[in-house]
């Protein structure tokens, strides 16, 4: 008879994981890598005026949003100020170029060897992207008086330090993926976002004295958003599939069919459309900062462009930024999902494996059916991402809490990484016949 379990299942699963030497080693290695990441995030570049940097962030909402994804490294302008986003950008570019460039398309069909070649190209492309991003950040800092004008050698040195910081984080992420728990790059981003939450809680505590109702409403919207994200993150449409099998018994041939299903996720694109659309919306404002005038000089057209493409602009002008963010997220979600399913080639894979959808003829009919299903569920998934994108706008103008920056991309990443890590932990425990998170 199984003894009664008194501990919560999650706590019991964690205890079971630490009883296994190899799993315990993976968990501890993951924590050690994250400690190294947080230590390096506080190593600033030389010649940074911290007072001017603080003043710059207090008056620039765009930088505050970007700082959240670097785990506060941008606010101190450390060597990890760019985070892993040059690598993510490189990965997205290579993935989108696979249907366009025949060589990349051929590599994607070569199995593990081809994937290793694609990963190597992504790593190489990360270096020039990191150099370009690092140069832009340094020039922006110089424009705002954070860094004094430097000669060419000093500029190259700082850019190389920023490139080294990005490559170091990519290496840490790959070590976590291979020897730790979860997807390393995602966990690095997750750690950077979570490290900003204590500051958010402190800001909410300061706002409590003057706006109790707003803080309570903020917490309720945040909780509802997390539930909403979890539901759509796990939602999927099951497509029934049957496989015909032929067996011989006593000299006779028998045809048998086995049934299974293909799970098509409602939000197949994940948080990529949010990152892509946010980059497009933020880009005009970032460029405008180089040409803005400061008081007492009168504002010019660059000031107007910055105000239009700033998330903290007051109504009614502030609607422009969030409306563009909403529409671009929907378009990016459709585009990225179509690219993914085109690369997977589900109809061709089913036909090669002898599978078929009951009631649907193989070939063109199956392709048309799957495309219709994907279009319908992608519509729901894109609207979900669009709503998540404008949650910060809703929170700001309904709660009147101005001191806290809530990031929709941050929420998606945090929820996705937690669920993915829990699933991997569950799989590890299931293989060893331990009870995991889910009964």
Structure keywords:
Preprotein translocase SecY subunit; 2 domains; 439 residues; single chain; globular; 67% helix; mainly alpha; disordered C terminus
Topology:
Elements: H1 9-19, H2 21-40, H3 50-58, H4 61-69, H5 85-97, H6 102-108, H7 111-143, H8 152-179, H9 184-194, H10 197-208, H11 212-234, E1 236-249, E2 252-265, H12 272-288, H13 301-308, H14 318-344, H15 346-352, E3 355-356, H16 364-389, H17 391-399, H18 408-431
Briefly summarize what is shown.
The chain is mainly alpha-helical. It has helices at residues 9-19, 21-40, 50-58, 61-69, 85-97, 102-108, 111-143, 152-179, 184-194, 197-208, 212-234, 272-288, 301-308, 318-344, 346-352, 364-389, 391-399, 408-431; strands spanning 236-249, 252-265, 355-356.
Can you offer a commentary on this structure?
The chain has 439 residues and is mainly α. The chain has 2 domains: 1-195 and 410-439, Preprotein translocase SecY subunit (Orthogonal Bundle), CATH 1.10.3370.10; 199-406, SecY subunit domain (Preprotein translocase SecY subunit, Orthogonal Bundle), CATH 1.10.3370.10. Helix content is 67%, strand content 7%. It has helices at residues 9-19, 21-40, 50-58, 61-69, 85-97, 102-108, 111-143, 152-179, 184-194, 197-208, 212-234, 272-288, 301-308, 318-344, 346-352, 364-389, 391-399, 408-431; strands at residues 236-249, 252-265, 355-356. A 3-stranded antiparallel β-sheet has the order 2-1-3. Helix 2 crosses helix 9 (184-194), helix 7 packs antiparallel against helix 8 (152-179) and helix 11 packs across helix 18. The longest helix is centred in the N-terminal third of the chain and has 33 residues, at 111-143. It is globular and about 80 Å long. The protein starts with 8 loop residues before the first helix and ends in an 8-residue tail after the last helix. Residues 1-6 and 434-439 have low confidence and may be disordered.
């Amino acid at each position: 008879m199984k003894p009664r379990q008194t501990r919560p299942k999650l706590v019991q699963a964690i205890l079971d994981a630490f009883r296994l030497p190899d799993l315990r080693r993976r968990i501890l290695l993951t924590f050690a890598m994250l400690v190294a990441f947080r230590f390096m995030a506080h190593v600033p570049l030389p010649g940074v005026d911290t007072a001017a940097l603080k003043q710059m962030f207090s008056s620039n909402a765009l930088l505050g949003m970007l700082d959240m994804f670097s785990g506060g490294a941008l606010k101190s302008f450390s060597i990890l100020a760019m985070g892993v986003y040059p690598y993510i950008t490189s990965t997205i570019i290579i993935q989108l170029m696979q249907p366009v460039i025949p060589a990349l398309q051929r590599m994607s069909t070569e199995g593990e060897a081809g994937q290793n070649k694609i990963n190597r190209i992504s790593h190489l492309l990360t270096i020039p992207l990191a150099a370009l991003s690092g140069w832009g950040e340094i020039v922006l800092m110089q424009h705002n008086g954070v860094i004094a004008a430097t000669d060419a050698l000093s500029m190259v040195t700082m850019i190389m330090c920023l490139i080294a910081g990005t490559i170091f984080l990519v290496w840490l992420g790959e070590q976590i993926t291979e020897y730790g728990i979860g997807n390393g790059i995602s966990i690095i981003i997750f750690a950077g976002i979570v490290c900003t939450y204590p500051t958010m809680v402190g800001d909410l505590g300061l706002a409590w004295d003057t706006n109790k109702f707003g803080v309570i409403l903020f917490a309720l919207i945040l909780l509802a958003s997390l539930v909403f994200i979890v539901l759509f993150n796990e939602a999927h449409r099951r497509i029934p599939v049957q496989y015909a099998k032929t067996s011989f018994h006593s000299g006779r041939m028998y045809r048998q069919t086995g049934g299974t299903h293909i799970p098509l996720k409602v939000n197949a694109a994940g948080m990529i459309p949010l990152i892509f659309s946010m980059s497009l919306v933020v880009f005009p404002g970032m460029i405008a900062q180089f040409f803005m005038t400061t008081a007492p000089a009168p504002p010019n057209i660059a000031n107007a462009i910055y105000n239009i493409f700033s998330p903290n602009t007051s109504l009614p002008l502030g609607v422009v930024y969030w409306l563009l963010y909403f529409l671009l997220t929907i378009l990016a979600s459709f585009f990225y999902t179509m690219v993914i399913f085109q690369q997977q080639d589900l109809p061709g894979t089913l036909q090669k494996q002898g599978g078929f959808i009951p009631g649907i003829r193989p070939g063109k009919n199956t392709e048309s059916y799957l495309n219709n299903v994907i279009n319908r569920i992608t519509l729901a998934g894109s609207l979900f991402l669009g709503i998540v994108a404008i949650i910060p706008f809703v929170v700001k103008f309904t709660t009147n809490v101005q001191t806290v920056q809530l990031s929709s991309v941050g929420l998606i990443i945090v929820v996705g990484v937690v669920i993915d890590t829990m699933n991997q932990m569950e799989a590890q425990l299931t293989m060893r016949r331990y009870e995991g998170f889910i009964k």
